[in-house]
Amino acid sequence: MNWDDVRIFLSVARTGQILGGARRLGLNHATVSRRIAALEAAIGAKLIRRTTVGSELTEAGERLLPVAERMEADMISARAEIAGETEEISGTVRIGAPDGFGVAFLAPRLGGLAERHPGLAIQLVPVPRSFSLSRREADIAITVDRPTEGRLVAGKLVDYTLGLYASKGYAAAHGLPERAEALSHHRLVGYVPDLVISPTLDYAAEVSETWKAAFAVSSAMGQVEAVRSGAGIGILHTFIARRHPDLVAVPFARPIRRSYWLVYHESMRPTRSIQAVAAFVGELVERERALFS
Question: Which residue from 11, 127, 224, 227 has the fewest beta carbons nearer than 10 Å?
Answer without folding.
Answer: 127
